[in-house]
Amino acid sequence: MSSSALRQHIQDLSGAEQRLLDKLYEGLIGGQRASLAESITLVETQHPRKKELAQVLLQRVLAYRREQESRNGGKPVAFRVGLSGPPGAGKSSFIEVVGKMLTGRGHKVSVLAVDPSSCTTGGSLMGDKTRMTELSRDMDAFIRPSPASGTLGGVTRTTNEAVVLCEGAGYDIVLVETVGVGQSEFAVADMVDMFVLLIPPAGGDELQGIKRGIIERADLVVVTKADGDLMGPARRIQAEYTSALKLLRRQSKSWNPEVVRASSHTNDGIPEVWAMLESYRDAMLASGELQGRRRAQQKVWMWSLIQDNALAHFQNHPSVRGALPQLEQRVTRGEISPGLAADLLLKAFTSSSPK
Q: DSSP class of residue 307?
């Protein structure tokens, strides 16, 4: 938003709206969890006016973060880590153990969940707070389940904005968790500094579901539950994935993805996994790749918002809404081609749109 457009937004605020935003902003940068939760609720809203307020708040938080980064020598003040894996990979236990270890070391950790299935069921698959009981009681941790609204695009937008708010509230480690389904992993990989894939020590068939594309995006693969009777299978899976990774092309000049084992149950390998995450961050910061990745992600984020909004604008246009049911029917009956139907709808949209 240009500064003049933002000023226009701010000039239009009523006194009550201005007071609400001031209260949220002050509370947020003061590290109050209640203000952070309320701010995230504001960015999740579908209400048009509240959406505008959310953008004004975000803009202030972004300016605050830029100021912090310039004091930090231009380096990001927080580390964003995406975590994904198939159901049964033990993501919650892993996040809880890592989160507790980090708060014990003086970090502030926020956990955000991206669960597109909540779009269809109207509620998060993951009762996150019920799963991470220890971490949810920790005053230096903040856990936020996925918003149950709209599309994957919608969930992604609000999660991206929630990351910004968490960082503004002083959380220096932001973990973004996704259920290993559909496109959500790719969406998360596009909003974090490092993408970690968690896999259980299961048989080969059970791992067929993990898409090659997502393995290519992984900066680190962790074989979980590597303890007791599962130690043998865990070693085998580690070897298989190590060979698989060698065949994929490297994403970064400064980092080679590795496959490691860990157990949330015995804590074996957990401190080592975090040490690897830190060495990744250091290497990527030193080479400037991490900053470059963030800049590229901002652009991806902007275009995905444009696509979502343009499509919504198109679908809600009166001429399109009028012609759509009949054209859809004719396409399904095979009377006209999908290409012709699309052209006719786009014509209806452009000819009656205000020039």
A: H
Number of C-beta neighbours around residue 326 at 10 A: 10
CB 107 within 8 A of CB 140: yes
Cβ(274)–Cβ(98) under 8 Å? yes
DSSP state of 143: E
Least confident of 85-89, 99-103, 290-294: 85-89
Kindly report the number of other CB atoms within 10 A of residue 310's CB atom.
Answer: 10
Residue 254 CB-density burial (10 A; 0-12 exposed, 13-18 middle, 19+ buried): middle
What separation in angstroms does the CA of 329 have from each of 143, 337, 338, 340? 45, 11, 11, 13
Structure tokens given for 209: 């579901």
pTM of the model: 0.86
CA 201 – CA 230 distance, rounded (Å): 7
CA distance 4 to 1: 8
Angle (CA) 79-163-259 rounded to 5° is: 45
pLDDT in tens, 216-250: 889 999 999 989 888 988 998 898 888 888 887 77
78, with CB counted inside 10 A (0-12, 13-18, 19+), is buried
Q: How many CA atoms lie within 13 A of 86 on its CB side?
A: 15
pLDDT in tens, 32-90: 999 999 999 999 888 888 988 999 999 999 999 999 999 988 889 999 999 998 878 88
- Work out whether the CA dihedral 207, 209, 212, 213 comes out positive or negative: negative
Q: Which of 116, 255, 265, 250 is nearest to 177 (CA)?
A: 116
